[in-house]
Request: fold
Amino acid sequence: MKPVEIKKDIFWVGAVDWNSRDFHGYSLSPRGTTYNAFLVKDEKITLFDTVKADFTNELMCSIAQACGSTPRIDYLVVNHLEPDHAGCLDVIVERYHPEKIFCSPMGEKALRSYYHNSQDWPVEVVPTGASISIGKRTVQFIETRMLHWPDNMISYIPEDKIAFSSDAFGQNWASTERFVDEVDSHALDTALGDYYANIVLPYSPVVLKLLDSLPGMNLDIDMLCPDHGLIWRGKEAVAHAFDSYREFALQKPTKKAVIVYDTMWHSTEKMARAICDGLADEGISVRIMSVKHNHHSAIMREVFDAGAVLVGSPTHNNGILPLVADVLTYMKGLRPQNKVAAAFGSFGWSGECVKIITEHLTNMGMEIIEPSVKVKNLPSHETYQACYDLGKKVGQAINAKLSA
Ligand code: FEO
Reply:
């Protein structure tokens, strides 16, 4: 796409990846995504971040169009080293020979380990509090370690009230529009939540720390530019991005439960439905999600703002079915908080399923609701009653937490 002037002499020069469906190799991106890069035309022409290597030519084409006569990059700011933003650094450095390359202290470590030929690159480390002049403008740097990699940082230009926030506040959203106010706000909020649940969630304490520290930094931001998706334009939109992240990071329980299961001969599936009835009778909104029909990132999107997660599997070879293990592994890494949980499942002879699932859920710090339900071969009337009662009990636990 052509460059877009987002403020006077500041251009979006990124790329739209319409075909991305497997973001970072582990998370769904059904709307595609963008790799945002920004060019500021001042005495020093400064490029903030680059794009995934597949889109290098598009980036260079946009730089040429934005620069006019003779394309050049004097300063290169690398807010994040993950390859979707820095995968073409070597080509850009070789092509434009920037005078200086700025990155965070952890960014330098990442840069050296990604680019083994970078010894001669003019790298300058800019920790939190550092600032540089690029002519009429200054750029201030704020490290945002583990949001979501050690090297991430935010670059802020006070003269334009604009911040480049790397992955934070991004969404997977491919479109011809560049600003959040140009698209449906509900769909945007959903995309923002999808991204948070699958990328940022484990680092929620870092998010809260950053949001709490912002007022003391006296930043006056009226445009917030993440490295993925749409740009937050105007103070109201920026406040919405910050408020949404605070709400996400707090992970307050809601009247919602997610039942995640796999099944062989439908016994565990039938149990899931009976549990659902018990939850619904307590006024809980339930999502039943078969791991065969729902990708782990779609499941995690529902788990992240739920009050409870219930997991079921048949016993298989003294363990649990592999897709259930996949979801539990993925979920553990994302560290969801404030959940009640329960386990259920069926078995033919050995019956370890419930014990194994309970161990996973306990290791995630979830509050386990007992008794779990386990059935040999086929559920009976008594099994369904036990499942219904488990659903009721989990529902009551959610309600008790919400009214505490
Ligand atoms: Fe979008 Fe952490 O890369």
User: Anything to note?
Assistant: The pocket of MU-OXO-diiron is lined by residues 80, 82, 84-85, 148-149, 167, 227-228 (CB under 6 Å).
